[in-house]
Amino acid sequence: IVGQIVIYCEDHNKAIEELELDELLKFSPVFEQDIYDFIDYNNIIEKGIKKNLK
């Protein structure tokens, strides 16, 4: 799924965090609004390393 999303972003000249939820839902029905907590660059930096995201 991630590879497909990356290709879509490259084809549409968008960053992953710029995608609308309905665009992400085309790739998988499990995406919800909280996906932005995990793909927003600033959020990730503030949360730190992977073990801190749990």
Automatic annotation (TrEMBL):
<dbReference type="Pfam" id="PF14698">
    <property type="entry name" value="ASL_C2"/>
</dbReference>
<dbReference type="GO" id="GO:0016829">
    <property type="term" value="F:lyase activity"/>
</dbReference>
<dbReference type="InterPro" id="IPR029419">
    <property type="entry name" value="Arg_succ_lyase_C"/>
</dbReference>
<keyword id="KW-0456">Lyase</keyword>
<feature type="domain" description="Argininosuccinate lyase C-terminal">
    <location>
        <begin position="1"/>
        <end position="46"/>
    </location>
</feature>
<protein>
    <submittedName>
        <fullName>Argininosuccinate lyase</fullName>
    </submittedName>
</protein>
